[in-house]
Each structure stands twice: as C-alpha cells, then as structure tokens.
Write a structure and sequence with these properties.
By secondary structure, this protein is mostly helical. It has two helices and two strands, in the order ββαα. The chain has a domain of 60 residues.
C-alpha cells in the first residue's frame, strides 16, 4: 500500500483510494485464478475425455490458490500494522 508520513508523529497514513484498489486487485485475483484454472482444466479435459469434471476441479484449485494468496496478504498486512503500532 502506498503510505505517506504524517508530519506530527511519523506514523503512516494510507489513502483510502490506494487501499481499496489494492484490496480489489487481490480479490479479483481469486476470480481470475479460478477462471484460468477452470479453462485449463476444460482444455485438458477435452484431450482426456472429461472436460466438465476437470473444469470444475481446475476452477476449485484456482479459486483455492487465489484465496490463499489473499489470506496470506491480509495476514502479512495485519502483522505489519501490529508491529508498527507497538511502542
């Protein structure tokens, strides 16, 4: 996130626009990963003979990977905020 230094205390303030853009990008990552893995599963499934099953499995794997990426980012951000708030 883009942060600016506050003149009075040196604490960091985050602009709402940049914070919301970052969160929206991370959340969009979940959907894009699900779509891409679902498409790849469908493509591989047409070669094997089970496009529907592999498309669903691929979409679930992609969504899980995207959600894990979102979760890891949020927990890392919370740890950074907790460390910066401690005296």
């Amino acid at each position: 996130m883009a942060a600016t230094n506050d003149q009075s205390g040196g604490s960091k303030k985050v602009r709402p626009a940049s914070a919301s853009a970052e969160v929206l990008g991370r959340a969009l990552n979940v959907g894009v990963a699900g779509f891409v893995f679902g498409f790849l599963g469908h493509w591989i499934g047409t070669k094997v003979g089970a496009p529907d099953v592999l498309a669903v499995i691929g979409a679930l794997i992609g969504a899980a990977a995207g959600f894990y990426s979102l979760y890891a980012h949020v927990t890392r951000r919370l740890e950074q905020n907790r460390d910066s708030d401690s005296p």
